[in-house]
Amino acid sequence: MAEKHNTWALLVGIDYYVPGDKRRVKYRNLNGCVSDIDSIKNYLNTINVDNISTLTSSIGPDGPQEDCKNLPIYPNIVRELENITEKADPGDIVYIHYSGHGIMRSAETFNPDEDNAGDKMTGTALALMDVMAGGAYLTGYQLGVFIKRMVQQKCLRVTLVLDSCFSGQGLRNSNSQIGGYTIRSGEGNFDDGIIESDVEAEKIAGDIGGNPVSEFRSTTKIRSWLSDPEGCTILTACEADEVAGETRIDGKFRGVLTYWILKILSENPSKIRPTYKRVRDYVERNIHYNMPTRPQSPILLGETDCVFLGKQRVIEKPTSYLRQQFGNCVELDIGWAQGAAVGAVYGVYTDNEVAGFDYLRWCEAHITRIENDKPFKSTAMLAPAGQNAKSPKIGIGSRVALEKWAVPLNNWLDITSLRGNISEHHLRAVETEVANIPGFDCRFRSELAGVTVFSFGLDGNGRLELLEGGKVVPRVPKISLEDDGWAVKAAYVVSHIARYRVLQSIQNNDLGTQLRAEWFSFEAHVLDNYYDDEDCADHTLDFNNVNTVSEGDVLRFTFEMDDSCPLDFVYVSFFTFDAAFGTYKVHPGQGQSSVKISQDSPAEFGLRMSIPEKCCSEDPNDVMDVVRVFISTSKICWDEIALPNLSPDIPQFPRDVLILPADTLDPLSTEGGGLGNRNAKVIRSREDDYLAQNPKTNWVIMDLKIYVASQS
C-alpha cells in the first residue's frame, strides 16, 4: 500500500495595492487575483487538501478587507513558507500559487549581459501589496532560496504557479486595460530602485540560503535556483516579451492562466490528473485559440513529467495532432523534418481517452505520403488497430503518438556473410524480422548492384555485429545467437541505427524557406563552474569547427541572434546526438517544445561531457558528439526525433507509457467589450517584409561538433 503524504498550500492573491511614493513604479489595483485564489482554494478542497493558507488583499472602501496577519506582504509570506518547511513531513507535497503584479528588477534584463542571459527567473520579482508604501519585493532569487530549502532539506515536492507578468523571464501586468482585458504589471515594466526593506529581505534570504551578505547585491547577478530546479515544478504565465492578463469570464474577473489550469483540472476529477506538461499545453492552446491577438505562452520549468499535484511520474510519448480529415485520409502535423517517413504507424487517441500500457487503441494512422515541400506535414490513412476495434470518434485535434517508426524506402541489409556461417533457420529469422521494419529489406550482395548498405557479420565469438560501409559500427552491442529473441534484437539494432542516421541527415535545402546560418551565433565555453562566468577557458567552441574537449568538462552553450538578422525573434530547440546513438533534447526542458529568443534574450544552457561505456574492447576511447539547434520562425515541436541510447534489450518502446487525452479547444465567453488589441512589441519593418515574402515556416539547423577525449 502506497504511503500517504499530506499536501500543503500557500495561496497569494493581490487585488488592492497600498498607494505610496517609495517606488518609481506605480501599480494599479487588479480585479481577479483574489477571485483566482478563492477558485484555487475551492478546487483544493475538492481533492481533500486540508493545510491551506491564504494571503489576500481585497479591495474595500478604506483599503484591504483582511486582517494584517493575512495580508500578502513580505513578512507574512516568509512566515507561511517557514511554517510549511517546519511542519511538513518528508515526502509531503507543497503547492504555492501567486496571482498579482510582476516586475523586472533591472533594466539590464531587457539587454542581458552574460550574467543573466537565458535565465528565466533571475532579476524578476513579485510585487507584493505594500511595495509602493515601502514594503519589499519578493525576488525570484529569494523565492528560490525558500523553495530550495523545502526540497533539499525536507524532501518536499513543490509546485509553484505564478500568474503574473514577467513570470517567464522569471515573473500580471495592469498598466493598461483594453476592452475588458487587464494586464498585470507595473507601469514602466522594471524597477531597479533599492530601499531599506529590499536590503532586509535580501539579508533574510542570504542567511537562509547560507550565503549572507554585508551589503546589498544586485539580484540580477545571482542565478535563482528556480531557473533549473530539481524536485520542483514551476508554471509561469507567459514569455518575457508577453503579458499575463485577467478578463471577465462568467461574470467574474479571472486570471487567464489560473482559469485554464482549473478548467483542465476540474474536467475529469474521477480520472488521473494530467501531467504538468499537458496542463501547460492545454492552457497555451486554449489561450491562443480564444485570444489570438494576445499570445500568452506559459513556461514550464523543473520536473514536468509528474502528475499535477502528485508524485507519480509518467513517461509520455511525444504527440502530434490530426489537423485535417477527408474520410479515412488525414493530415498530421508531423513531417520528414521531424523524422516521419512513409510506413510509420501512429496510434490515434480521441477526446477524453487516457491510455496506459494496457489500453487498447481503436485506431491507427499509417503514413502514406511525405512531400519534400511540406517538412512539417504528412498524409496518413486511418485503419482499425485490431480485428475487434470499434469505430472511434476521430476528429481534428485528436492526438497521434508514434507506435512504429519507419525509415525512407529502399534501405537494404546485406546478409551475404551470414550465409554458410549460420543455419538457414537463423537466416530466415533475420530476414523475417528485418522485413518488419518499414522501408527495410534483406538482400544478398549479388542482388544489390553496388548500393551502399548495412550488413551483418560474425565476430570471433560467433556473435552478430553490425557493419556500415564495410566497417564495424562502434559502440553497438553484439548479439549472441543463443540469446532469447536474438533476431528481434538484431532487427531493432538495424532499425535504430538507420533511424539515427536519418535523423542526423535532416537538413533544410529549400532556399525558399531556409534561414541563413550567418544570422545566428552558436558557441560554447569550457567552465570550471557553470554558475561562475569568470571561470571560462581561453578557447571558444563554435559550429564552424570540430572542437576538442575532455571527458568531464562542463560547457556553457550560448545561442544568439546577430544584428544582421531581419527577424524580431525565432524559436529554438537543442538536441544532442551522442556516441551511444541516442538523441536527447537538452534545452528547453521537457515542458517546452522550443524556446523563444530575440536579440535581447539569447538562449543559454550547460552540459557536462561524458563518454558512454564501450560495448567491446575494440571500441575507440574518444567519441564525437553533436549538439544541434533547430531554428524556426514558428513554434515547431521537434520532440519526435528523440531516440534512447541503443540497447538490444529494448526492442520496442517502453511499456510504462501514458498517452494523454486529446486537447479540446474550449470557446471562451468573455464580457466587457471583448478582448480587443493589446500593446504588443513593435516589429521592425524589415521583418514584415521578410515574412511577407516567406509565408511558410522558415527554418535551419546548426551543428556544434564536439570531440570528447577520454581521460583514461
Our measurement of the CA-to-CA distance between the termini, rounded to an integer number of angstroms, reads 47 Å
- Annotation, overall tally of beta strands: 37
CATH class of the largest domain: Alpha Beta
Beta percentage is: 25-35%
Low-confidence stretches: 107-121, 167-181, 212-223, 354-360, 530-537, 650-694
Individual helix count: 9
Q: Looking at the structure, what is the overall shape?
A: elongated
Which second-level CATH architecture of the largest domain applies?
Answer: 3-Layer(aba) Sandwich
Which fold does the CATH topology of the largest domain refer to?
A: Rossmann fold
Radius of gyration: 27 Å
User: Structural class of the secondary elements?
Assistant: alpha+beta
Helix content: 10-25%
Whole-number average pLDDT? 78
Biggest beta-sheet profile: 8 strands, mixed
Q: Give the domain tally.
A: 3
Textual characterization of the structure:
With 712 residues, the chain is an alpha+beta fold. It folds into three domains: 7-302, Rossmann fold, CATH 3.40.50; 411-504, 3-Layer(aba) Sandwich (Glutaredoxin), CATH 3.40.30; 517-636 and 697-709, Immunoglobulin-like (Sandwich). It has nine helices and 37 strands. Helix 7 links the parallel strand 22 and strand 23 (440-443). The two termini are 47 Å apart. One of its GO terms (cellular component) is cytoplasm. One of its GO terms (molecular function) is cysteine-type endopeptidase activity. Residues 8-287 form the Peptidase C14 caspase domain. Belongs to the peptidase C14B family.
